Amino acid sequence: MNKNWYAVYTRPQCEKKVAAQLSKKRIENFCPVNRLVYNNQQSRRKPLSEPLFPSFVFVYITEAEINQVRQVNDVINFIYWLGKPAVIKQEEIAYINNFSNNYFNLSLTKTTVNIAGTAYTNLEPKMDLKMGVVSARTSVLKATLPSLGYILCAEVESADTSVTTFNYGMVGDNMAL
């Protein structure tokens, strides 16, 4: 049987716990985290990580393993599309993995779900208007994830625009992460 990526809906704030339980049962899973950096009261930069997709964990399983995943504590159900568990494309998991590993302070924007669509990235300059001068110090790198219905955004310095190209090699039927 073929393995596919599926999205599992969990109880609120139980994503890391569910991922640990799935790993303990030797079920391949992916719980992307958003690495946030904020200034605390003592003017120090403090790192913080939180799940990128609230109440979601991704699992790489066959259809026969679906019931085994449902039996994990704090798993509510799979995300469904047209009456069946929604299959998430390998390419989209690769984009999420790349963004969560390489960028800080990510944001998600909902968009329409399009199962037939392809994931892609684009870079949009963020224009600042200060005292009549337009400058583009930062840019917003966006990855569109059509089967999930989200756009993943990361703010990058304009000097870092060379990192906008993603190359994923094919490994059999699946994309390499």
Oligomeric form: single chain
Q: Give the helix tally.
A: 3
Morphology: globular
What percentage of residues falls in helices of 4 or more residues?
A: 10-25%
The end-to-end distance, rounded to whole angstroms, is 21 Å
What would the average pLDDT be, to the nearest integer? 79
Low-confidence stretches: 160-177
Strand fraction equals 35-45%
The chain-level structural class is alpha+beta
Number of strands: 15
Any overview of this molecule?
With 177 residues, this protein is of the alpha+beta class. 16% of the residues lie in helices and 45% in strands. It has three helices and 15 strands. It has helices at residues 15-24, 66-70, 90-102, and strands at residues 4-10, 29-30, 33-39, 45-51, 56-61, 75-78, 80-81, 84-85, 87-88, 107-110, 120-130, 133-145, 150-157, 170-171, 174-175. Strands 1, 2, 5, 6 and 9 form a five-stranded antiparallel beta sheet that branches. A hairpin with a 5-residue loop joins β3 (33-39) and β4 (45-51). The longest helix has 13 residues, at 90-102. It is globular. It starts with a strand and ends with a strand. Mean pLDDT is 79; it is low at 160-177.
